Amino acid sequence: MKHYVRQSVVTFVFMIGCVAPDLVIAGPEEDLNAAKMAYDRGDLIGAMALFQSAADSGLAEAQVRLAYIHDYSENNEEAVSLYRAAADQGSSDGYLGLGEMYAKGEGVETDLKVALDFFNMAAELENTRAMLQLARYYKVGDLGLVVDLERAGEWLIRAAELGDPTAMKELVAAYQEGGFGLKVNQERAAFWQDRLETRRKENE
């Protein structure tokens, strides 16, 4: 899959001048929605042209989605630029993307302090993926942090309370076995298991 994405990005860069004029005929929101549908059906080149149009119009979600594709295909500098453009608009996903790039040292020099700052900025905007990342970092002492199980548990619970299914699943396990600084509590485990099942049914 990664090889396919990288090849598609290269093809897109070559073809954009020809493809984009025919595709980019609507407003940025319409382009974004069309890009999502194209991406879901496997039309990566068509999706990228539409994402590019919406991103060029300043739509933060399109910038983040296009950044993710570039990140995955290892066009790291372009990914950083797009994540930053979204973050400049206050996008929590933009902050999260920048945090990941600084943590990995992709497209920028590795800087764990800057990465942590961006993760915290995303988490304070209720980005549950950033909260889950922070929970894991505090659990094991990664990203230059010392192990702090109390804070790990707090971030995990906050993410679960906001409805993140991965956080809910990890919280169930934590209450069942003891983890993230939480004591074994089968009643709480059952409570979160029920909430997880309800969330899954709602998304079916």
Order of helices and strands: HHHHHHHHHHH
Segments where pLDDT lies below 50 for 5+ residues?
10-25
Based on the coordinates given, report the CATH architecture of the largest domain. Answer: Alpha Horseshoe
Integer tally of domains: 2
Which key phrases capture this entry?
Serine Threonine Protein Phosphatase 5, Tetratricopeptide repeat, 76% helix, 0% strand, 204 residues, mainly alpha, single chain, globular
Briefly, what is this?
By secondary structure, the protein is mainly α.
Describe this structure in words.
The protein is mostly helical. The protein folds into two domains: 125 residues, Alpha Horseshoe (Serine Threonine Protein Phosphatase 5, Tetratricopeptide repeat), CATH 1.25.40.10; 79 residues, Serine Threonine Protein Phosphatase 5, Tetratricopeptide repeat. The protein has eleven helices and no strands. The longest helix is centred in the first third of the chain and has 22 residues.
